[in-house]
Amino acid sequence: MSQVFDQQAPKKAANLSINSDLLAQAKKLKINLSATLEKTLVAELSKKKEQAWLAENKEAIAEFNQRIEKQGLFSDALRTF
């Protein structure tokens, strides 16, 4: 899978609003907020991009699956199981 984002891009400050209790607990446990947010954003971006790709290619995927169902796979004759 290709990179979700440019890892060489410079860091940029951002203002966020977060539940005060959640923030206090995270600080108490020494959770790195920036790293946690980046990790979570990468996962969310990957999920959204996958969903977009599947939606964009829905028709082609359906046609391919129909063809395989009708004609089978080229390797079906080679299977030993």
Question: What structural class do helix, strand and pairing data support?
Answer: mainly alpha
- Termini gap: 31 Å
Uncertain residue segments? none
Helicity level, as a percent range? 55-70%
* E-strand count: 0
Tell me the fraction of residues in β-strands, as a range. under 5%
Main sheet characteristics? none
Q: How many domains?
A: 1
Description:
The protein is mainly α. It contains three helices and no strands. It has helices at residues 20-28, 33-56, 58-71. The two termini are 31 Å apart.
Helices and strands in order:
Blueprint: H1 20-28, H2 33-56, H3 58-71
Q: What are the salient characteristics of this protein?
A:
81 residues, mainly alpha, 3 helices
Quick overview:
By secondary structure, the protein is mainly α.
